[in-house]
Amino acid sequence: MTALEEAIDIGRTVLIAVAITLFVRFFFFQPFNIPSGSMKPTLLIGDFVLVDKVEYGYSRASLIWPMTRMPVHGRVLSDTPNTGEIVVFKNSADKNKDYIKRVIGTPGDTVQVQGGVLYVNGEQVKRELLQQPSHCNLGAGRIVTTMPVYRETLPNGVSYIIQECRGNSSVYDNTEAFVVPAGHYFLMGDNRDNSSDSRSDVVGYKPIPSGWEGEETMFHFVPLDQIVGKATRVAFSVDGDKAQIWEVWKWPFAIRYSRLMGSVE
Asked: TM segments (predicted)?
């Protein structure tokens, strides 16, 4: 084999590998980097999550450029998220930014938070205290505070871990009763006091009430066609305090080995 033939063969192999990677990312799984602590303790900053695009079918939000510009609305091969599942979605206010939250309310549900306690359809969601808050003085003025940790169980039996600060004066801890409209979802982070989610005005979309003459959009609910897919597994995880993602020579000491390929629940 000549040098030219060898170069062509290598180039062909690389192109095939790239094509397969793009095909998988396009239609099956997409990696998602956890950029904030809004889903702690379930997901940590530095986790890389695999997002299943097949689970809920396809929409423009779940595809990649240039197919995101197709004049198509709604979803194809569509299924719907279940309460308790963790999903990645496009924020209607900023469709270039992906968010990851847990489905708390599906169409027809009423969701409310009172005194930091979650209510779905008027019933208090079961919550069990797993860890009391504590303070640890490390010296040199460094104090570590751990928040209360709870196991929350939704009416459909889905159970997961949340954390929240003591004290319930935040607007996130006392909300109005949100009625989820058809084709929309109410999403919340597991880190209840540090999550921009459907309780706030910066995430989701709230339909315009009849006769409304104000701005065109109000926020709170996430449309089905803005959901990218379902978070399924933590493919990779690196502790950013020990190494930046580009500092590969530090990875052996920064990788969270216990989280690799763990299921997202």
From this structure: 12-32
- Spatial distance between the Cα atoms of 32 and 214, rounded to a whole number of angstroms: 36
Sign of CA dihedral 238, 243, 247, 249: negative
Per-residue pLDDT at 220 exceeds 50: yes
pTM over 0.85: no
CB atoms within 10 A of CB 46: 23
**Percent helix, strand, coil in the chain (nearest 5)?**
20, 35, 45
Residue 190 neighbours by CB under 8 Å, 6+ apart: 38, 39, 40, 41, 42, 43, 102, 160, 161, 162, 163
Q: 101 catalytic, yes or no?
A: yes
Instruction: Say yes or no: domain 3-263 is CATH 3.10.620.30.
Output: no
pLDDT at 179 over 50: yes
Q: Which residue has the tokens 């929240």?
A: 164
Inform me whether the pLDDT recorded for 120 exceeds 90: yes
Whether omega before 107 lies within 30 degrees of 0, making that bond cis, reads no
Share of the chain above pLDDT 70, in %: 68
Select which of 38, 59, 62, 195 is catalytic: 38
9 to 3, 13, 23, 197: CA distances (angstroms): 10, 6, 21, 49
**pLDDT for the residue 107:** 95
Of 59, 101, 198, 230, the catalytic one is: 101
- The pLDDT, as a whole number, for residue 17 is 61
Characterize 209-247 residue by residue with b for buried, 16 or more Cβ atoms within 10 angstroms of its Cβ, and e for exposed. eeeeeeeeeebbbbbbbbbbbbbbbbbbbbbeeebeeee
